[in-house]
Design goal:
The protein has 132 residues and is of the alpha+beta class. The protein has helices spanning 8-13, 24-35, 104-107; strands spanning 43-47, 54-62, 68-76, 85-89, 111-115. Helices cover 17% and strands 25% of the residues. The chain has a five-stranded mixed β-sheet. The termini are far apart.
């Protein structure tokens, strides 16, 4: 049984105290403006991963400073129309690894987009997005 330290009504209304630096909004306005200088232009290259029931795509799109970010987009084979999609960001030390590592959600009928973590990987899962 899970342990919950507040009743649901209190959790939904909870707003912790926050201390933001004076330049917080300016920082994010500048950062987002810089990111928008690069068109998204994602590429979805089909990959033969020997997974008979799934379609796998190697996705690349420009991240910070236009540097390429990699990911896997995996769907049930031949899926037509929109699907619910799980977007998964890998934590520090991990990377996108191999498509076989991510078959659970697509095997249940979802699309799954597994984002590589820039400059990470090889601690517990191999990465494919270097940090130049």
């Amino acid at each position: 049984m899970p342990f919950i330290d507040m009743p649901l009504a209190e959790l939904e209304a909870y707003r912790p105290a926050r201390v933001e630096p004076n330049d917080f909004d300016a920082f994010w306005q500048t950062t987002l403006a810089a990111a928008r200088r690069y068109p998204l232009n994602p590429t979805f290259a089909p990959v033969d991963a020997n997974l008979r029931t799934l379609d796998v795509f190697d996705v690349t799109f420009p991240g910070w400073g236009g540097q390429p970010i990699r990911g896997w987009f995996i769907t049930p084979r031949g899926a037509a129309g929109p699907l619910p999609c799980i977007v998964q960001f890998i934590g520090y030390g991990g990377g996108r690894a191999f498509p076989i590592n991510w078959i659970d959600w697509p095997s249940l009928g979802y699309a799954h987009f597994v984002m590589d973590t820039r400059g990470q990987g090889s601690t517990w899962f191999e990465g494919d997005t270097p940090d130049p």
